[in-house]
Each structure stands twice: as structure tokens, then as C-alpha cells.
Amino acid sequence: MTMNRPYNFSAGPAAIPEEVLQQAAAEMLDWHGSGMGVMEMSHRGKEFIAIYEQAEADLRELLAVPPEFKILFMQGGGLAENAIVPLNLSRAATVDFVVTGSWSQKSRKEAAKYAAEVRTAASGEESHFTTLPDPAGWQLSRGASYVHICSNETIHGVEFQELPDLRALGSDAPLVIDFSSHVASRPVDWSRVSLAFGGAQKNLGPAGLTLVVVREDLLGHALPACPSAFDYKIVAENHSMFNTPPTWGIYMAGLTFQWLKRQREGAASGVAAMEQRNIAKARLLYDFIDQSQFYVNKVAANCRSRMNIPFFLRDESRNDAFLAGAKERGLLQLKGHKSVGGMRASIYNAMPLAGVQALVDYLQDFERTAA
Ligand SMILES: Cc1ncc(COP(=O)(O)O)c(C=O)c1O
């Protein structure tokens, strides 16, 4: 059974593929004849262990995570990782940040509580975060414990189209990426990344699950004050079950991974198929906005996010009418983040091309009737 649901452009928690929701609904009261719903199972029972192991294996396959990386399913979201990463990796020394928008700004501020020194290697602030600073100009510190970037800034709508190669820039520091808002939308170049973290609630499932993918050699250096439940080594040794993991979130993410594995675009499948679809979706929306005199996106073309597309009506007095009309058409949660204003369309993996086309049709009609 499929329902005619509205298109949901929320930045997160965000739309989940309908097939995944349907399957979760069907299994809600009785998972695979066990007589229990997933939320009611012991995390140490064979049923949940099977769910966990399948989810981990599917994610490893989908993101092509190399064997020397551990996959951790944690709690606390992206903001908790802003503390957990420096607690584990800073070694109370210097850490470098590249500030490209609100999320990396927040990460830098939090890290200052734990690292001896936090340096800003580069910032996009002068451009009001409409461009990404060119890695060739980054001022990387000698001997930094790590370099942090946010690879997709959800609020400002800028995305690294290629991850920086720190070695080529003369640094041997590990690269940490916050990939909360574009995980599984494109492949990850693990040869350039040492740790990636992200909340699940945009592209992987419900809020409450935090994904960490970390290279093994970075484990075991936590500061003495690091809570045991946040010490990556302890979490890894206990297969994410040092404490009770977010079992429902892991299950829902697991269903999403299965859904991702089923996706096809030509010869491509999984994340490669999603990437093709995401390129097509983003192009459709940006091309429309760019040719219009009525709407504007201010981000430099080579830095634009495929996932989060902030845009403005040139006449902002029409914002409320725009949002009301969108809602009537079944186009939900298009209001921009309060710090930026305007509108934002988040078009994660669960948003089909037809949803973006419906938005473009509405943009066109609203422009026409407002003229
Ligand atoms: C890129 C990025 N990092 C971190 C966060 C914060 O995540 P959480 O609210 O799960 O702590 C968000 C949330 O929107 C985000 O988009």
C-alpha cells in the first residue's frame, strides 16, 4: 500500500523513504515472528544482534568503509560529537578548524573546551559563507592533532565537492569530517578521511542515532576526563554496546541501508545511484532558481550543496504567502533556518526527482501569479 504523502523538505529530522516506514509499520508489533517489536528487545538478544550485524555490514558495503575503520553506533548527535571528537583525538594539543558555516563554527567553539589550542586554518566568513576557502590557502598548524571540516553545511548550503588531501597540503594530521547532512548521498574518499561523524536524522533514519566511522589507530588516546560511554576505544571494543545503544535508530537505519542497496540508476546501485539522482535533483532546482528574476541562491556555483538549497524571494514581503501556498500544494517545511532567513529546500536521498519537480512547478506558478 502506498499513500499519497506530501513532499517533505525538512532539513532534519527529515523525510524517510516510504517503503522503510511501511516496513517498520508492518513489523512494529512482531518482528519476524519473534513476538516482540524491535523497541522491546534486549540489545543482547539474538534477534537484535542479527539486526545490528546486518546494519553494520550493509553500511560498510554501501560506504565502502575499509577494514581498518571501525563503525560505531552512538548517541548524542552531531553536537555531542563536537565534544567527543576532541575528548578522543585532541591529546590536549592544538587542533585546526576550517570554518565554512554555522556547524563548523559550533564545532570549533566546543573543541576549545578540550584542546589546548584551537586554530582557524581558514574561514569563509568574509563571503558570509557563500564560498569555501580554497585548500591551497589553508594555514595548517604543524603537529596539529587533527583538522576538522564540515563537509556539508546544512544551514548555509555549501558542500565540499572534493575532500581536501591534507598530505598534499603538507600536513600529516588526521582529517575529521562532520558529514551529518550528506552521508550516503555520495561516496566518501576514505584515503583522505580519518574520522567521519553524523547524526542519522537527515539521510539515515530517525534522530537518536549517531554514526561514527573512525580509523583504528586513532583509538586509545582519549583524555582522562572522557566519559567511558564516549571513549571510542571502549565503544569499539564493545561493538557499540558498552551501554544500551539506540536500538530503534539502528533498526531504522538498517532498513534504510537495505532500501539504499535496492536503488538503481542505469548500471549504478546504492550510494553511486543516489549520487546520480542527487546530482539531477540539485541541477533541476538550481537551474530553475538561476534563470529566475524572482528567486535567488547566493552560493558560489562550485560550492553549492546538493542536499540543502537555501534560496530567497527577492521580494521578501511575499515569504508568508509563499510558504502558505507551498503547504497547500503538499510541499512541507520549506522555511529557511532562522539565522539565514528565506527558504531552504533539503532534498536528501528520500526526496524523489518528482518531489523536486513539484517544487519547481510551484516556484514557477507562484512567480507567475505574483507578477
Ligand atoms: C552538519 C551538522 N552538524 C551537526 C548537527 C547537529 O546535530 P544534532 O542536532 O544531531 O546534535 C547538524 C544538525 O542539524 C548538522 O546539520
From TrEMBL:
Binds 1 pyridoxal phosphate per subunit. Pathway: Amino-acid biosynthesis; L-serine biosynthesis; L-serine from 3-phospho-D-glycerate: step 2/3; Cofactor biosynthesis; pyridoxine 5'-phosphate biosynthesis; pyridoxine 5'-phosphate from D-erythrose 4-phosphate: step 3/5. Transmembrane segments: none annotated. Its cofactor is pyridoxal 5'-phosphate. Keywords: Amino-acid biosynthesis, Aminotransferase, Cytoplasm, Pyridoxal phosphate, Pyridoxine biosynthesis, Serine biosynthesis, Transferase. InterPro entries: Aminotrans_V_dom, Pser_aminoTfrase, PyrdxlP-dep_Trfase, PyrdxlP-dep_Trfase_major, PyrdxlP-dep_Trfase_small. It is found in: Cytoplasm. Catalyzes the reversible conversion of 3-phosphohydroxypyruvate to phosphoserine and of 3-hydroxy-2-oxo-4-phosphonooxybutanoate to phosphohydroxythreonine. This is Phosphoserine aminotransferase. It comes from Diaphorobacter nitroreducens. The lineage of its organism: Bacteria, Pseudomonadati, Pseudomonadota, Betaproteobacteria, Burkholderiales.
